[in-house]
Write a structure and sequence with these properties.
By secondary structure, this protein is of the alpha/beta class. 32% of the residues lie in helices and 26% in strands.
Length: 320
């Protein structure tokens, strides 16, 4: 048994979810099911190792009503966001379930029809969590929930605090595609966000009075050299001028922020049949430097603005 804990421990003790026998997933009309891996149907039990449970858990009971999956690097941020969504939906604090499963690699929370998952930093950990949570959604019979990643980033030519809503991901080579190595071969995937989600999130930002901009997001493999920084531990071959030339080139290609997950997040969600979007707070303008110099209060305000866009958008599309 896996204990699913409510955050309101005084009124809702740990609730064990009885294991059930995994039954084959039958084909349905959902876009996600049509592109799902057919080999999964041959597994008697699928052990979702990194999440800390298997298909013996009653996944339809826990996740079957999911309409949105929200992902972000920080477990603490996902827990906080779950509370914000509960408040926006006028649900009691004890409506937040979680963490579900084990927590050393990620944390999962559930509030109403929203599942929240932390994924750590960078594509490698994100790819693991996306594979397993998308399988959870299929086993649960959730259909086609929309995926939204919320995070922080370095801005490119935008004022710190601007929420960048990604139009498409761009690699660190400034190419609008994901190159993924599979069995020793490089496979390329497209990286567009869902236009409907992007438009809706931009409209919500405008409604809230939050400064937001639609633009390409560059996805780097690391925080320092991969993003052209000069403040890492080792000396670099490139100079300040090389860095500025690179960032200016990125800006001219439509890049408005840099992070470490967007290309995989958008391409994999699309492959799996889910609509997806990315919303990131920008903590600095990289054209003005490499260091984050805003105060803790300013950084919290920047993050809260981006979170509020997602919370209000999700709530508006859940409530009748």
């Amino acid at each position: 048994q896996v204990a699913v804990v409510s955050s309101c421990k005084q009124t809702a003790p740990a609730m064990p979810v009885a294991p059930v026998k995994k039954s084959p997933v039958k084909a349905c009309s959902s876009a996600a099911d049509k592109v799902a891996n057919p080999l999964l149907d041959d597994l008697a039990v699928d052990f979702l190792y990194h999440l800390g449970f298997s298909t013996e858990l009653n996944l339809p009971l826990l996740f079957g009503d999911t309409k949105f999956v929200i992902m972000g690097g920080s477990a603490e941020r996902m827990e906080s966001l779950a509370g914000m969504i509960a408040k926006e939906l006028r649900l009691p604090a004890c409506a937040v379930m979680g963490p579900i499963g084990k927590t050393e690699r990620c944390s999962i929370y559930k509030v109403g029809p929203v599942t929240l998952v932390s994924h750590g930093m960078g594509v490698p950990s994100l790819s693991i969590m996306m594979n397993e949570i998308i399988k959870v959604m299929r086993y649960a019979g959730a259909g086609d929930p929309s995926f939204i990643r919320i995070g922080t980033s370095g801005g490119v030519g935008v004022k710190p605090g601007t929420a960048v809503i990604t139009s498409h991901g761009i690699s660190a080579m400034l190419e609008a595609k994901l190159q993924h190595v599979e069995c020793g071969k490089v496979v390329e995937y497209t990286t567009e966000a869902d236009e409907g989600l992007v438009g809706g999130l931009l409209a919500m930002a405008q409604k809230l009075g939050v400064t937001a901009e639609k633009g390409a997001t560059m996805c780097a493999d690391d925080f320092f050299e991969g993003q052209g920084r000069l403040d890492g531990a080792c000396a670099t071959w490139y100079t300040e001028q090389d860095k500025m030339d690179f960032l200016q080139k990125a800006y001219k290609l439509g890049v408005r922020n840099i992070e470490m997950e967007s290309t995989f997040f958008l391409s994999f969600a699309r492959r799996a049949g889910h609509k997806a979007a990315v919303v990131c707070a920008t903590l600095l303008n990289r054209l003005n430097g490499d260091q984050v110099t805003s105060t803790p209060q300013q950084l919290a305000e920047f993050t809260d603005d981006a979170l509020n866009i997602v919370v209000r958008y999700v709530a508006e599309h859940i409530q009748p």
